[in-house]
Amino acid sequence: MHAAAFDLRGTIRKVIPAGLIVLTLAGLIATILLPAPWHSRVFDSAIPTKTLRLEEFVGAGLWLTGAFGAVFTLLLAVTWRWWRAEGAADTPSPTSCHWQKSDRWFAPLLLALLTMATWQRWPAMSHSLWGDEDWAFCAYVYGEWRPVEKHGSYQGPIKFHTVPWEQTLFGDQQGNNHWLSSLLQRLSLNAWRKLEHRKRWDFDERIIRLAPLLGGLGSLAAVALFLRSLGRPVEGLVAALFMEFHPWHFRFSTEARGYSLMLLFFVLAIWAASNCLKSGRLRHWLWLGIVEWLVMLSWKGAVYPLLFLNGLIVVVIWRQHRRTPAVRRTQLSRWLAGSLVGALLFLPQGITSELQVRRSLEQVRHRARPMDQTWAANTLSETLIGIPFFEEDPENPRELSLQRQWRTSPVSGLLAGGIALLLVLGLWRLWRRDRLLAGICLTICVSAVATALHFKYLIRVELLPWYLLFCLPIWAILVAAAVSPDDSLLATRPGWLRFTPATAALIFFALFESPTDRILRQFPLEDFRDAWLATRGRHEPLGFDGPSKIYTAWLWRMGEAYDPRGDVRVRDATSLRRRMAEAQSANGDFYMVVGYRELGELLCPDLLAALEESANFERVETLWGDEKVHTLTVYHMKQAPPAGPSIK
User: Fold this and answer.
1) How many CB atoms lie within 10 A of CB 548?
2) What are the phi and psi torsion angles at 144 (to 5°)?
3) For 299, which DSSP code?
4) I want to staple 23 with a disulfide (CB 3.0 to 4.6 A). Which of 73, 148, 377, 585 is the partner?
5) Which of 508, 499, 487 is nearest to 419 (CA)?
6) For residues 623 and 398, what is the distance between their CA atoms, to the nearest angstrom?
7) Which residues, in sequence order, are bridge partners of residue 619?
8) How many Å apart are CA 171 and CA 352, to the nearest integer?
9) Is residue 193's pLDDT more than 90?
């Protein structure tokens, strides 16, 4: 039996390098058989992006994938004998997850925490889709309604067209496809339609948010289990509770995007990196590469902290094994092998996305707001406590800001400063006990600064505050370290005294964040569904495909999943008069939904004046959003416009 096992291992040693060589040749053959990308139109900047088909980007991307894949697999084959070296670099894994008698309370408490988090978040699962959700859902998961006749009117019969699977897996025209989330949403939606015998255009917001919810709950469990594996179960639960009550975690674990999945896999990547640097085992390095691939597949914006994390890994390996060059070479080779495996898996989506995004970057810049001092204050405040610093609209009852809370309750202003102090204290205490984890936390913080600088000065696109969401588990770990009852000063104290700092900090944080969590639980960020119900939904059911006498127009913000017939080209008084005349001649109704009012006041003042000052329209409803850009105003054209001066 031992001989057979030995022969099997020997066979594996021969098969793996041979397989890597075969994959290298396959990549080279692919570059020969597939059309070279420089002969395609994707590199011709004179051709508008909208005229290019996705197949052209995929073809060029697969050719480049074959070329880079051949290089990567060749590197794996060349370094095979180093990263497969046994014995010298392996140590027993220091992070066992076997349950100990002393912490049998951990599992039921973690289960209770996850149950409470689910109860908190479930009401928000059925909220209306908002801008980012709606655009990504329709573009990569759902589909679109088109006129039955080619070049026909959307007021006539329309037919639903499902998104091609190629678009779900490779599409990224605006850089907003979170591939893993899109895939899981589509699979969930298809299963729900089949089980419920629904039509192929039916959708339920709760179903498409199910994968993000599970990702968010998984990230809470992951951070708790990670710290418990380091021998600090209390800190694990404190960190999970901090994340649970943080408005960002609440929001993005109930948002139909890939951010919560990224959080889950990012925590697992930190865990895997810690294991790699402590045990040096090959399986840990390969697991790190796979988890990093899942992070990027969930949200490619996490490339910044991953780059800094890998830089730290190289530095630590170099310093740890200064006096053992053979072990250092083995560890660096294993790090390279794990990284190459993750890169190989990500190449098809990564390259295809880069080809698409680079052509649409200028369009994105036109929609970006300046990264000025207001942006810096709001971003710092949102990152720490989940709400912006400055108040935008005093009339908005749903808007929450530190400035507004400070006015109503001055003690609220202490929270931001208190959390900042806890982060510094936590970093200091963590540095004394676990320099590796403290170094990882500090590195991720530095990567956030580098991300902001890269967006401002190189990409020249606004960095949305939640692009720094990867900092959230770092904040949780540092806050847990700051209030840890395991400090030597508290270790000999009575239990009630040891846990007082952690309990007090969590209660204060939960009470401060409760108004924000209540708003997130009760109201959508942007109410496209109610805007549809106040307009076309008054007359037609969702999915109505016959001829329509209901005319709707949307300014800047549009809920395409709810109102596919909506017109986004009405942007001045002239086009408004034209739509009014069409509705009147058809003896129908006309509605106008205005979003992003500030931009409308800047670019479409005559249109807004016609809606507000003309006797032809009545304001039906104001649907408040979490910020001014997401507030929607609904107008209805009166059935019998009074005689008198026309709209100017």
Assistant:
1) 21
2) -155, 155
3) -
4) 73
5) 508
6) 10
7) 635
8) 8
9) yes
The DSSP code sequence of 264-293 is HHHHHHHHHHHHHHHH--HHHHHHHHHHHH
Q: Please identify which residue in the block is written with the tokens 């009401």.
A: 123
Secondary structure of residue 623 in the 3-state scheme: strand
Closest C-alpha to 623, from 466, 398, 417: 398
Structure tokens at 355: 């080809």
Contacts 24+ apart (CB under 8 A), 95-98: 95/229, 95/230, 95/271, 95/274, 95/275, 95/278, 95/279, 96/229, 97/225, 97/228, 97/229
pTM, two decimal places: 0.91
Tokens for 13, please give them. 């040693």
Residue type, 464: L
Q: How far is 58 from 61, CA to CA, in rounded Å?
A: 5
Write out the two tokens for 78: 């060349």
Name residue, tokens 């990867």.
470
SS (H, E, C) 363-412: HHHHCCCCCCHHHHHHHHHHHHHCCCCCCCCCCCCCCCCHHHHHHHCHHH
Backbone torsion region of residue 225, taken as left when φ is above 0, otherwise alpha when ψ lies between -120 and 50, otherwise beta: alpha
The phi and psi torsions of 167 (rounded to 5 degrees) equal: -70, -40
- Which tokens hold the place of 389? 């610093």
Rounded CA-CA distance 496/103 in Å is: 17
Residue 368, phi-psi category: left (phi > 0), alpha (psi -120 to 50), beta (remainder): beta
Q: 376, 369 in Cβ contact below 8 A? A: no
Strand partners, 14: none
Type of residue found at 462: E
If you count them, how many residues does the chain have?
648
3-state SS track over 452-486: HHHHHHHHCCCCCHHHHHHHHHHHHHHHHHHCCCC
Q: Which has the closest alpha carbon to 591: 648, 510, 534?
A: 534
Token look-up 């099997």 returns 8
CA angle 362, 367, 372 (to 5 degrees): 105
* 391-to-338, 368, 405 alpha-carbon distances in Å: 46, 20, 10
pLDDT confidence of residue 566: 94
**What is residue 493's predicted lDDT score, i.e. its pLDDT?**
58
Give the 3-state secondary structure of residue 617: strand
Cα(388)–Cα(247) distance, rounded to whole angstroms? 11
**Tell me, what amino acid is at 601?**
E
Q: Identify the bridge partners of residue 593 per DSSP, sorted by sequence position.
A: 554, 634
Report yes or no: 138 and 144 within 8 Å, Cβ to Cβ: yes
Q: Judge whether 633 and 398 are in contact, CB under 8 Å.
A: no
Q: Which of 96-100, 173-177, 609-613 has the lowest mean pLDDT?
A: 96-100
> At 333, which amino acid appears?
S
> What is the token pair recorded at 86?
């046994």
- pLDDT, one tens digit per residue, over 34-54 is 777 777 788 877 677 777 888
Cα 62 from chain centroid? 25
Instruction: Give the position of tokens 């007082």.
Output: 500
The pLDDT value recorded for residue 170 is 94
Residue 322 buriedness (CB in 10 A; 0-12 / 13-18 / 19+): exposed
The phi and psi torsions of 565 (rounded to 5 degrees) equal -85, -5
Distance CA 370, CA 577 (A): 34
What sign has the CA pseudo-torsion 297, 301, 305, 310? positive
Which pLDDT does position 96 carry in this prediction?
Answer: 47
